[in-house]
């Protein structure tokens, strides 16, 4: 495997695990008998939905914020994500008694603003786009010394997500393949590094939606690229990877064995499948991993497969719509 310029190590992941233990609990890995039967090997669901915020992003946010100095904590943290990362930053900051500012464009839906407020975040409205909110965040950093918590391209965030890899090694001794929803790549970088450092024969599959798969297209182009965002059920997988990406582009290139892209109708079908067979609500991003299995998009070796069930934050109106068009196979 190619040497990386910048390195997040397995020691960093162990440190993350220790640092986070006061606020993050280990999550269950449960076998799905119906999926095991369909695929012909044991399939485990790694339930990152059980965190308080309903998604894995609390791991990276917790490790990053806990690694700040006393001085930095006093000045506070900032983010411009309104999705699972923004919720995670607000949640962790509240637990630690740190002030969190979320920069939000005036176009963000009220329901999202309300749930961030409920977590005690300080909301700053700025401009009409995500870009303007991001710029405001940088001003807060320069002028007021707030620390901007990056959603994926940060060593502490990557190490935090990597703790999922340690838990998989402990709980699934026969593990041979892991299916990881992929956007900015913090999750895949952390899990991939943690697993392959221990056992290079474990296969890592990255899954994205067909529309706006920015990491996938960037890897093909050999450098970070920009793409327009299209509507998708996997909204948590939207967003660029950063034109000046420092860590995750190289790490995903190094640790991902194969990439799979899932069309929208299969994401919908997989969300409904999980409600039908497991009585579990998944958001579209998490359902891409299930779709990769149901659609036979991957050829596996022997041994157990783990699918990272990354989150369950989806509007019930979306769930309703999906159930209406569900067609049980
Ligand atoms: C952020 C997120 C992902 C992708 O994680 P990256 O580190 O950006 O690749 C997948 N699923 C859910 C639910 C997310 O919130």
Automatic annotation (TrEMBL):
Gene3D superfamilies per record: 3.40.50.1100
Protein known as: threonine ammonia-lyase
Domain Tryptophan synthase beta chain-like PALP residue range list: 22-311
Transmembrane domains' residue ranges: none
Xref: PANTHER family: L-THREONINE DEHYDRATASE CATABOLIC TDCB, THREONINE DEHYDRATASE, MITOCHONDRIAL-RELATED
Gene expressing this chain: eutB
Pfam families: PALP
Cross-referenced InterPro entries: Ser/Thr_Dehydratase, TrpB-like_PALP, TrpB-like_PALP_sf
Record-level GO BP terms: isoleucine biosynthetic process; L-serine catabolic process; L-threonine catabolic process
Domain of life of the source: Bacteria
Cofactor: pyridoxal 5'-phosphate
């Amino acid at each position: 495997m190619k040497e990386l310029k910048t390195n997040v190590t397995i020691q960093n992941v162990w440190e993350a695990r220790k640092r986070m233990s006061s606020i993050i609990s280990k999550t269950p890995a449960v076998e799905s008998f119906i999926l095991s039967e369909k695929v012909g090997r044991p399939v485990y669901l790694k339930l990152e939905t059980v965190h308080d915020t309903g998604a894995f992003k609390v791991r990276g946010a917790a490790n990053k914020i806990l690694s700040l100095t006393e001085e930095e904590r006093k000045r506070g943290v900032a983010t411009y994500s309104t999705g699972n990362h923004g919720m995670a930053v607000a949640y962790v900051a509240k637990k630690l008694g740190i002030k969190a500012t979320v920069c939000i464009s005036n176009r963000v839906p009220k329901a999202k603003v309300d749930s961030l407020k409920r977590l005690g975040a300080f909301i700053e409205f700025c401009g009409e786009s995500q870009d303007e909110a991001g710029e405001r965040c940088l001003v807060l950093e320069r002028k007021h010394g707030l620390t901007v918590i990056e959603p994926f391209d940060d060593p502490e965030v990557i190490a935090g997500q990597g703790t999922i890899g340690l838990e998989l090694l402990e709980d699934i001794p026969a593990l041979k393949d892991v299916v990881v929803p992929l956007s900015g790549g913090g999750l895949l970088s952390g899990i991939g590094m943690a697993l392959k450092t221990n056992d290079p024969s474990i296969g890592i599959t990255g899954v994205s939606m067909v529309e706006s798969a920015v990491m996938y297209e960037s890897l093909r182009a050999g450098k970070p690229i920009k793409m327009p965002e299209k509507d998708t059920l996997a909204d948590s997988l939207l967003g660029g990877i950063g034109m000046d990406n420092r860590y995750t582009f190289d790490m995903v290139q190094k640790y991902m064995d194969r990439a799979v892209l899932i069309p929208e109708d299969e994401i919908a079908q997989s969300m409904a499948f999980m409600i039908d067979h497991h009585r579990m609500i998944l958001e579209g991003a998490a359902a891409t991993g299930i779709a990769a299995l149901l659609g036979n998009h991957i050829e596996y070796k022997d041994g157990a497969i783990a699918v990272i069930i990354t989150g369950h934050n989806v509007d019930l109106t979306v769930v309703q719509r999906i159930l209406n068009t569900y067609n049980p196979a």
